[in-house]
Amino acid sequence: MNSRPYGPHVRVSACKADVLSGESMLLTRLNYRPRPKTRKPCPGRLRFRWRLPFLDHQGSLHFYTRNTHFSFWTFMAGKEPFVYIDGEYHPKGEAKISVYDHGLLYGDGVFEGIRAYNGTVFRLREHVERLFEGLRVIRVNIPLTKEQVMNAIVETLRRNNLADAYIRLVITRGRGNLGLDPRSCPKPSIIIMTEPVLPAHGKEAREKGVTAVISSLRRDMVDGTSHEVKSLNYIQSVLSKFQAIDSGTDEVVMLDHRGMVSEFHGSNLFIVKQGIIHTPTSAAGILHGVTRARVMKLAEELGYEVRERDITPYELMTADEAFLTGTMAEVVPVVKIHGVAIAEGKPGPVTREIIRGFQRIIQDPKEGVPIRETIAIPAKTRN
Ligand SMILES: Cc1ncc(COP(=O)(O)O)c(C=O)c1O
Q1: Catalytic residue positions?
Q2: Which pTM value belongs to this model?
Q3: Are 250 and 355 members of one domain?
Q4: Which ligand 1 atom is nearest residue 265's CA?
Q5: Mean pLDDT of the region 109-132
Q6: Which of 228, 229, 315, 363 has the fewest CB neighbours in a 10 Å radius?
Q7: Residue 16 Cα, ligand 1 centroid: separation in angstroms?
Q8: Phi then psi for 288, rounded to 5 degrees?
Q9: Is the pLDDT of residue 66 over 80?
């Protein structure tokens, strides 16, 4: 038996604020069943006003109410987010790729972690540039231009109604057979996942700082397969993270094959010594961090000298200050390394100034691509 109540009921499948337009909306699915003519309206029952309901691009009906005194089911949790796979948008629970994809079988692919702040995708062009560099090195051709990838990202954010988000862009070699020969994979998979990030994310770490241990595993020699390529193979970082977990620290410092400081397992490393900022070079097998590059520029804008050079573990542990940079972490002070307090074991003044500057930068719409915007595709690259 159909137990739905009678009347112009609206089944509300989600309720959330439209963070892009600033409007509050109810995302609805119409569940209409006409009331039998014989039945009288119940006094005190549903009274609400409609204001121009409309269908959005997902097929959801949106409406506004002045009075919520009517029968509907409200799920305050958001709708299941959409995941972009090869040009199509799938609800998260149905977003799947083949188990024969070489991204899964061999870690054969590249990815980007990107952030959107307040409706702007921070340094989107730089992330997509790095992605395409990685694709060139691993010899994967995708059927999209950089602009089309950027448009797919902003469209995914729009569909998921996100203004502050973490974005994971993944390109895999694609589906092939079980052998590792990449020629069995004719078509790469392009995946975009997005999730909300709270504005207060990372505040505590920024204020108090984090601790680190030095990993016994070494970053590879720089030969084209090291962390300069942001490949899907993160096993070295994952195993190093276990060392942080086992030793009760937050982070882990990776050394390169020579024993020089390289980076953290998922972020770049800086030290401050006598007012000068130092960071390891590409030769130490680092990922060319997008945040690192912006922080180096910021430090120079603030009047600091920045030197890219080899750093020994001794120099790291005897630095006046140390901090890490990364898309998700942003800028975080490191206050203890391998049991040794960095200076007084508190975030230092230079780090705090960089953090303040970076917090300003991420709110600046000129530092990225607005989610509302569709990126023009240059004529020469148009498909
Ligand atoms: C190994 C490694 N190094 C550094 C970084 C920081 O790079 P970015 O600032 O581009 O996020 C990351 C970020 O994912 C990383 O995985």
Answers
A1: 230
A2: 0.81
A3: yes
A4: 1
A5: 98
A6: 363
A7: 32
A8: -75, 85
A9: no
